[in-house]
Each structure stands twice: as C-alpha cells, then as structure tokens.
Amino acid sequence: MDDIIWEKLAGKRVLVAGDYMVDRYIEGGVRRISPEAPVPVIEVRSEREVLGGAGNVINNILALGGEAMAVGCIGTDGEGDNLLSMLQARGADVSCIFRDENRPTIVKTRVVSGFQQFLRYDKEKIEPLSGACMRFFRAHEEEIFRRADIVLLSDYGKGTFTQECAQFFIQGARKRGLKVVIDPKGKDYSRYYGATVCTPNVKELKEATGSQVESEEELYAAAEKLREENGLNYVLVTRSEKGMSLIPGVKKNKDDFPALAKEVVDVTGAGDTVVSVISLALAAGIPFPQACKMANRAASVVVSKFGSATATKMELIGDSISKKEVVAQKDAEVLAECLRQQGKKIVFTNGCFDILHAGHISSFRHARALGDVLIVGLNSDASVRRIKGEKRPVIGEKDRAALLLGLEVVDYVIIFDEDTPEALIHAVRPDVLVKGKDWESKQPVAGQEFIESYGGRVAFMRLEEGLSTTSIIEKIKNSYGSK
Hints:
Low-confidence stretches: none
Structural class: alpha/beta
Largest sheet: 9 strands, mixed
Oligomer: single chain
Number of strands: 18
C-alpha cells in the first residue's frame, strides 16, 4: 500500500505563481441539426465554472492534502471576483493576487454534450504583466515566499512570465534554498534559467530545441540540450501514452516511467496533476524517481475523468489496490471510500468458502447483480477452526482466496480473523449485505443494524438445494473412507 508515502505530502506549502483562469462548461444534449446552418443544436441543461490554468494546479495540490499560496494577476471584473471566491473556498491563500483593471480575467468556455466538446471560445488579453503588477510582487516579496516549501511556476503562455517575472520567482526561491518546478510554455526557456526542473511535453520539447524527437536517443539529446543551455537540474518530459522520461544532469542517460494502463477519457489537466505531485513530493523530501512514479499514478487517475479534474489522496491509495490480489483488512476502509468516490454501489458477502461449489457460484452471481462491486469477506484459517472445528478448513486461506479471485464476479477478497464479519462491515460500509436465506430467521445478522442505520440493506439469497461444503465432505468420506 502507498498510504504512508502519500501521507508525506500533507501540509506541504506550494507557492503557485502563474496564469489563473476560469473554466466554464455549458453542458447539454443534441437532438437536432440547426435549420440555419449545418451545426448541432445544444439544448443547455447546466452551466458550471471551475478553476482553470494555475487554479487547477491549486485544486490538485489541495486535493492531495497540501497547502497553496496563489500568486498572479487577474482582472477587476466579475469573473475575477468569482475566481478569487473559488480559490478562497478551496482554502488557497490569495493575499498576493494582484488585480489589474486593464487586464480581463481569462475565461475559457467549453460547450459539451456527454464527453464530446463541440466548441471552445476564450476571453483573454495576452500581453506582458504591467509595471504595477511587478512592483506589487516586489513590495510583497517576503509575504509571497513566507512559509513556502517549494515554488511552482504554472505558465500557460498568457504573458505572466516575462524574463523579469520568472527570474523574480526563481532567484527568490534560490535565495531561500527552495526548489523550483516549471510547467513551461513557448520556445524561450532562458527565462526559466536556474530552475530545478522543467516539465515540457514532447511537442513543447521539439519547439523549444528545434530538434527532431522521433527516437529515444533524439529525445534524450534534445532534453539534455534544453537542460544544459538553461541551467536546469532536471528535465522531465511528459510523453502521453508512453508515460514520462526524467533527464538528470548527473548521468548520461534517462529514466523512463511507462504510463499506467487506464481508460483515457480526457487528458485535460493531466499536466497540472503531474507538476502538482512532483512539487509536493520534492517538498516532502521524496527522491525524484519516486516522485515521478507518484506523478505517473496520479495522472493515470485524472485522464480517466472528464474536464479539468484532480486525483485525491484517497483515490490514489485506492487505485494502488489490485482487484486480483487479497486486500489487507487494514486497507478495507480506504478501498471502500475510493469506490464510493467513484460512484460505485458496494455489495458485500462473507463466508468460509472451504470447498467452492456451484451453490457458491450462484450466490456470488446473484450478489454481484445487486451493485457495481462485489467484496467477499473470507474467514481466516484460525477463524474457520474456531467455528467449524479443528479438522477445518480443508483448503487454506491463501488457496481459498485465490479461487475466489479467479471468479469474474468477485472483485475483491478481504481475509478477516474474527468469528463474525462485523468489524469488516463497519470498515467497508456496503450498500448491500448479502446472506443466505437460512439466515433470514436469525435476524439481526452480524452488521445488519449498522448497515440499516445509514440506509443500506440486507438481501437474503435463496440457496441451491443439497449443496454445502459439509455435504460434499461427507460424500467424499463415504466414497473414499476406510471400509
């Protein structure tokens, strides 16, 4: 489990300087083509606004338990008011956001239906920061860097990072012994001189170096050139479906971190997630290779969501739990919370399942149909002996668990050592607890009152006639026992 290492990110404070913007989504359905032009007509059902640009970086940092100081320039318009309100509502420090009446707040509006984006239109004014903004930053330098554990520059190419502005943050960080992470934009990386790491994607690397990046050797050569010419300690190249590659100056090769298999819904914001995790991990003193692995996992979670999304600490811990491995009982609560955050309906059943038979398979199949995920609580060997006697179980807990995990309808197996699954049920908080019909007359069953207290229910399943582990054992004894 990765819970310990993800916990290290909590409370680390990231100074996030960058281009702040509002992402607006107009969502609806399409049922016809306009009679005025060959375009679809979106019947609007909802409109929502979320933090975009450097604001989405803030979202990611806070979702992972970190703290964030937002530094940038926005307009004095209503959109700027909304942006500040969203940042404050999330818990970001906005005391060093400068508001410029001549610079409208950036708004990106997307018209979407389902996961399909039909149109995007932007409200923005791309130009260098005003002298008034830089004077504000310099006047508030001590406040800006106070309590920062690391500095992150989120450059969306909207004019914030002039040479003067970028170096203000980089030199201010170096003076205080802080690392600097850059999410870059454009061809001129000289303004990032002296940063700890830049994180271009392959397209940005090509543009910045004028190099072909078709082979692994060419990628390394281009990244090393970028690193050397701009005084960077590292270059981390994000490579979409190929994951990411880290080029450190201390050795003449690169470290590759392959992408983790995941259904890709939308890559929007994946880069924000990468730099957020890298920043928090480096601030926590986690070695760079381990930080890259963490960022890779977080990005794999984010691309499975639509729009500018984040990965929570709970999701990342839960994401590391494999469906086809036994889940430790101590991790049951984390697993269940992760599943709930994904909107899954959890079904739970339990038993010894000493000799797996057709009756068990039928019960599992019916149980799985009641929800999205089936978690099976499995009595440990010690527990079975206390319940069934010293001659049981016939099959050990590891083999019993392996048999259960081999069934398509079983998603997770958790071995518990108590005589009843009550403690495990409290940890999982399932939506449905499934028991055999023979338990219906013994109500309340273990955990029933707890489940019903939060709106869950107990479902009693009809058992297959004449099928039980005990009857199978007796048949074997009668057929093969001593005569």
